[in-house]
Amino acid sequence: MLGLGLPANSLLKECSSYDTVGNGYFSLTIHAIPARWRRLAVITSAFHMPRARAIFDTTYGLATRSLLGGPFALSYHEASDEGLFDPEVLATRVAKEQAAVATWQRDTSAFARLADLHAWLHATHLCYAVYRQHEVAAKDDPKLAATY
């Protein structure tokens, strides 16, 4: 972003997350809610955008309903995947992303409040539930591991 000419003081880091779910949750709770921002941009790779959009729409939507009363205006911007990975590797990652969207939708469909997401995140999610930390392991699929 700096290379594109954006001033450093207009960019903020979200450094509490381990994954896209955390990106959505912590960008909301660390930055958007305290700063009372309503308009935000989400920028990620094209292969990752469907999952990022699903997660950010759900997360920010829960905050709108349970905390703030007014909607967030999220804009989504894709970076090209062209030349990023070997086509077979990219196809493996796209399949993983599609499965992750379905899992996210299944896991969060009953959530009505941001507190529901908070409880699930810290009680169930592999990256954030302390009692599950022993389950974290390296990616077994070498093609998938190449995309991280």
TrEMBL record:
GO cellular component terms given for this protein: plasma membrane
According to the record, the segments passing through the membrane are: none
Limits of the DUF218 domain: 4-61
| Signal peptide location | none
Q: Which Gene3D superfamilies match?
A: HUPs
Name of the featured protein: DUF218 domain-containing protein
* Organism (species): Auxenochlorella protothecoides (Green microalga)
